[in-house]
Batch of 3 targets.
Target 1
Amino acid sequence: MNNLIKGTLGFGIMAACLAAVGMLQSWTLAFTIINMCLISAVMALGVNIQWGYAGLFNVGIVGFTALGGLAAMLVSTPPVVGAWQAGGVSMLFALIALLVVIFGIVFIRRIIPVGRLRSLATVLSVIGGFFLIRYFYAPAVDAIESFDPARTGFLGGLGAPILFSWIVGAFFAAGAAWMIGKISLGLRSDYLAIATLGISEIIIAMLKNEDWLSRGVKNVSGLPRPVPYEINLQSTPWFIDRVTAFYANSLPTDELARTEALQQKLIEASSLFVKLCYTGLFLAVLLLVLWFAYRAQKAPWGRMMRAIRDNEDAANAMGKDVTRRHLQVFVVGSAVVGIAGAMMTTLEGQLTPGTYNPLRYTFLIWAMVIIGGSGNNIGSVLGAFIVWFGWVEAEPLGQWVIDYGTAWMGDDNGLRSHMLANASHMRLIIMGVVLLLVMRFSPRGLLPETNRQ
Amino acid sequence: MSTDTINALVLFANFILVPGITYGSQLALGALGITLVYAVLRFSNFAHGDTMAFGCMFTILTTWWLQSMGVSLGPLPTALLALPVGIAMTAVLVIVFDKLVYKHYREQKSAPVVFVIASVGVMFVTNGLVRFIIGPNDQQFSDGMRFLVRARDFKKATGLDEGLTIKLTQGLTVVIAIVAMLLLFYFLQRTRTGKAMRAYSDNEDLALLSGIDPKKVVITTWLIVAALTTLAGVLYGLDKSFKPFTYFQLLLPMFAAAIVGGVGKPLGAILGGFIVAFSEILLTYAYKKLIGYIAGERPETLVQLLSTDYKFAVSFMILVVVLLWRPTGILRGKTI
């Protein structure tokens, strides 16, 4: 079977499944799943650019996602004027101090020749710099965090439209990726994996603990939306007209019952409409990224990346700077993940640092890329749909299977209640097993890479 | 020496030295496992933290069962009695995973990164198993005598302001870690199988030519790794507490320890374990009281360099410094 048939079949089955969810459960749920599938697909594309194009293994996807989320919050929330007045200036000084220290160290390392003296000077300036930054930073944090901590206690953001954050998120993630890549690329291949694991844990720890920046585990909710609010839609005349027209035949004729039923339909329709708006936005981003990824893969650049991936030594001998290309593709891929992270926070309308769970994000996305077909962009998108759908629907299914399978034990059986309580962890096992099986028996995934010349 | 100086020393021992040595031993045992897998099987095992949790989990379950049977070791924790069961279960787990997962890639001579991804899959499954069987919450399983040295008794005996506490589990950790390391080095240096393992790690082709059975080497490695990880996991759990997510998070300090010392070098893993442990504690300790004893007056702030929430950042910083400065590690391990 070639990829076209398989792909069409795969997406056809996914569409049927989603339609089944829409009809059996609810259309709102179906579109909730679709929206997350689209976001996951963008993330999977980012990872596919790193892994499929260049063979780089990134275990820190959750960190780059979180940076995108931070960008969404920083761009969209209005600035907290009081907090800025309380500690903004000191915080800016701390930032300046940080930059001074970084440039100072780079400068010192430039002018002093390699040797003991240079190492000593570097260590001393790191220690000195640390205390210099802290001198401004600690009081700034105290001042900002004690400003109305119940409602704010952080600097807030720019108050700009949240859609801008999708680009900002890409830059945030790209910056972190550049730093990590600069340190660990060019060394052993698994050092990158370990370094990304580390940086993602640190990013999450920062989001959770730097209350002045992200409000930490107190969360920032109510981020402004790029799409209308349900409550406003329900009183917008054209929307009411549309809904009334759509349900004209099925609404009861009795005046009182009619208004009530219409109200009910309006609530449902408005929530569905909002979801659809998001779907449109996400789809646009996905298609754009897909188009760029496709063009890049077809271009000489893509050929070069494949050459590097398949035989580094040969590519190196042909004059390709392997480490530099790796850094480039790593930064680009992480930026795409950053976009997806910002999109996700936009969809949720809140930044909740406590929910960035490494197991869930990082490994789900990996499963998507590998199951879908490493190196094949459409495959990654298909993988994203299948895996996310499976992940969401596996929970009720697993619960049901265990419930049904252990019913013979009787309701007061300890083992049965234990298994029911822990059923949700079955998903991890299943996802891991599926990942291992696909890697073992079908390493090229559902839609194998075709463009190999 | 003035009393202030002695007080400062006791304070240092109580909050830095004793916890540092304990945590260092636990990390060293964990890093030894990582380094052995790297030396013989040639990949970074991301499933290591969760394998630790798996071994610890079975030890806990056996401990609970023994406790319910009324068995105890007197002053020692019952978990010691349950350890062999934990090690055996872990050995079964890692060997099953080797047969089902890694063996195939070894035969295919896959790139190291493929092994790493496979180990991530294994980690996923192991993690799920642990959460499914024992749940994601904290579990306490230490019993027996709690302290070797109590702060109160120490203060009474010495008349100092500062007390020294040494928990039994801390003492046990150090003793068991030393015994395990000595046994490991004896095994690697003196026995035939140990020598075969080192030869295989040094040069696979040459080792195969001289008639070393690769299957035996691989199995032995996994058995040792199972024992070391379970030990590390149980000692960490006895000392602190058992929580699956914490064990996953231990992966980073353990990797840092293995890389800092020099990947593939057992001695390096031990050195690295102590470097990481002491850096973590030294950087996150609040020096207020200590400075008070030395300088005569206590500073107003806590004088804490980093908040404890960032202790994982310390391992990462060490990792970064080593990668930039000497990517092969202090004892010059392998690189590919």
Target 2
Amino acid sequence: MTETTVRLPDTSKLVVSSSPHFHDGSSVRKIMLLVIVALMPACLAGVLTFGPRALWVMLVCVVACMLVEAICTKLQGRTCTLGDGSAALTGLLLGMNLPVTTPAWMCVVGAIIAIGIGKMIYGGLGYNPFNPALVGRVALLMAFPTAMTTWVAPRSASSPLWAGVDSVTRATPLGTPWTGEQLFSTWELFIGRTGGSLGETCVPALVLGGLLLIALKIIRWQVPVCFIGTVAVITGIAHLAAPEQVAPPLLHIMSGGLMLGAFFMATDMVTTPLGRTGAVIFGVGCGVITAVIRLWGSYPEGVSFAILIMNAFTPLIDRYTAGKPFGVISHPGREVKL
Amino acid sequence: MTKKHLRFYGGVQPQESKIASGVAIVSAPLLATYVVPLQQHIGVPAKPVVAKGDKVLRGQLIGEAGGFISAAVHAPTSGIVKEIGSCLGPVGNQLPALILESDGEDQAAEPMSALDWPNASPDELRKRVAEAGIVGMGGAAFPSAVKLSPPQNKTIDTLILNGVECEPCLTADHRLMLERPEQVIIGARITARILGAKQVIIAIEANKPDAVALLQEKAAGTGVEVRSLQVRYPQGAEKQLIYSLTGRKVPSGGLPMDVGCVVQNVGTGAAICEAVCDGKPLYERVTTVTGTPLVAPGNWRFRVGTPYLEAIKLAGGVKTDPVKIISGGPMMGMAVYSLDIPILKNCSGILLLAADELRQYESTPCIRCGRCNDTCPMAMMPGILSVQIEKERFELAEQWHVLDCIECGCCAYGCPAGRPLVQLMGRAKAAVQAARKSRTAKKA
């Protein structure tokens, strides 16, 4: 080959940047989209259980959350962050945490609180101390306690999917005082044919999505295992001590928002501890608070509160669980403010 | 050999892309001009001992060590010193350099006397390593003679020859081990003699089974142990390698000699062997020129001072326009913007990346996913530290041992938010070192 035929690089077009020059291709958008995909079985179960209005509620929440984020970034003079998918995920989680009868305007109020106050006011994704979807849900629960705790019965299996929800209100397993007898069969509890928020009732769908996220290493298994395990242990002991007043642990772990909370809300990256030890502490903490609220609190359900309270402890947990770097003998971790 | 190896903490598994691993080393043809920097090592630049217009021979000393931490520089071929000036270095700085016009004769200078290494004294051998201008050829370019002179109170019991080559794409060390296994082994034994080390280990990543088998065969009966290690980046990082092989942890801020170890690249070992047994100074090295845009990626034995452009010409030029050219490997190498940069003693590779391999992304706020915590081989918290470094809280970074960061790039490699973690750590390291310097200056 003669020198004249050799094509040489054009140095004027070279990119110069800091190492490393390889990247594994992960992105925030991919993570958020995968979480949304993992939620799909539970969404589908919600629609099948509570009828097409479940789809409407989720859609309103998603669209409202994205709109609020778009407006906030506009007002803040920042580039639009809708592309990262986090607003859509927050909207979907908010919708799944609401009763199927929630009016659209209430969904919008929830979205404004979730995204506006729960997230954008702190500076957007990455800076919010509390899980935005739960901030929205809990605000609605406080503001509209009746609407937020009116549960309708699941569709009867024989009626067509497009039929509206019948207006019969139905008690939830946790909302009804335990009398020693199960209101729902264990099978009904398992597949989610009970009263409840539209996305929280179907245990197998939620577990399937959660296992997918664990397999993809998006969430740490320690959080759901410790969270659900702690609730089971505490309610189990209480049930053994007073079987007449406390429901059995199986009912506790399969009802309310525990599965949705443990797999999808207590594992939110931004608002939970970084490390494995921190994840264990966080999970156990959530479990204890949930069990305490359920057994002795004035609310029948405590998963949302438990996660929000533990969110507040996240910086502290991170600080006390920070490990020693490799080769470090004495470490200032405990005296340093992060 | 079946001994179960320890695993270092963290790490990542990038695509290996070692496309040039099957291409044998070829000696690069002579060029008309070489640009020989007088600073090819960490420390003080070498002092030129020739003047403009002088005729020099191949292997002749042209720059003598400028201080304790410095290294000699030798002429890569015979010719006339055209100019003593400067040239662009791979890091983007100007290096003092000699421009050497080749006379095409490639006439060798009188070589140094060959030493009978099993009987030569360690001091004699060490002196030869210094005279031959040998530096760490794995990348750091620390003068070897200094590394092989541990203080009296440190006993070195283990010498590790690093043939891990965990950087993706690079194959120079692999080819060297396959083609000159005797030199690597003798180099290891000479180094062990200098240090008085009883245990000698040649460490190779398990993705090079041919090199492991060959060296095991050649090393039989010499007391040199050849070990195959798990394929995981950065297995070849000094502190991680020592831990994987011996279970010893180099203390924070310390050196391998604090745990009785010295780690040396296999290329350096081979260079020491040549310097001692053949009296040949270090003026050429094996460098991988690779990347998908190249017509013919491969491994060459280049004279020091060969401009990158000539190396790319040897690899047949490009078939598609590269968007990035890297001095070194893809994880720790430096992106360069000029091809006039010469190959230095520590240049293990020149890597060209095509447009589809380039990752350019916008950096967004940390979402606290915790991946960098899990992959950091130093068990640091790059994500949290980076947020603090952005706020210029360098004193906090110092307390959190930012100086221990080895800049391997595992954190940024897997960061979904595309944060420039290595860059931020580097910035903090520079700031902390500057602050320390001014503090000691105030005390004095």
Target 3
Amino acid sequence: MARHKSRPVEEQGEPEMEISSMIDCCFLLLIYFLVATSLVSEKKLDVNIPGNPSAGGTPPPVEPGRIDVSANGAITWNGDMPVGEPYDASAQPGTAAYKAQRHLDQLVEALKTLKEQAVAVDTEPIVMVTGAPSTPHQRIVDVMAALAEADIHTVGLNTTASE
Amino acid sequence: MGKKKRPQDDVNGNPNMSPMIDCCFLLLIFFVVNATALTVSKDPSINMPSAVSCSELKDANGCIVVNIFADPDKMSEKAVKKYNETYKRAGVIWGVADSNEASGSKGFTQDEGQLLSDYISKQKEFYKAKNMDEKNIRIYLRGDLAAPWERTAGAIRCAAAAGVSNMVFGTLPSRG
């Protein structure tokens, strides 16, 4: 009688799933989102437009501050005090000229004084910003940043009729 | 001499991967949610201005985004290309996201302030229908740093006509 060689039955353990590729994918996605969220994201400057003063009837207890921005980007406070140099679009980030353009220290000081005066009579300061039609948007944002630094958020925005 | 049998390892050397995968998925979900929550529709043709004292935009919900463009001669070549591809006509100074348009964006010229105002009114009603507090409905002004002020002021006037007085100026943090 022929002897049948019986093949040894390979022991089959529990079925295992190959998960290393999945982990690779997960890590790739993880790194992608880590990088994507740490990229420079947009920030904001809040502004509330005040209502029509004639509708309220009573004038504000503190005279509203006035900021004028000319077509070349020069900034004046209350009509006569220069607080910002003309805008220089060629100033590169990191340079002293760029820093001087973005930091309007004199204006911030004037706005803080106005804020203190308003707080003393228990009211909110109001500032009117008037820009020439061709003033670059960046210069208005510089003014808004100064207002935010002085913690003033009620701002009237106007456009001059001519340059 | 009899062969010595090597003692069989009875310790399983495979690390347990499941907790690590769990952690990875949790982190993944966290970043996915984080990345999508702060998204406002951004037009790449805009060169954003920078500001020294800006704050984080924590919640973009309720923001009606209005892009304000500079003249094409003040844009980069890439930005002009994108601008032309998106709006396909000259003189567009304001752009908004609109899912009804094939490009996903809708442009308005200087003379189309009323249309912009109507769009803002529509968006405002949309948010109000979602029971959103009116003070949280804001105009997110994404102005190009070289855009003339009259365009920004025009967009603010259109928003005021639509009854929205809360403005948010989009900026980038200053690098100097």
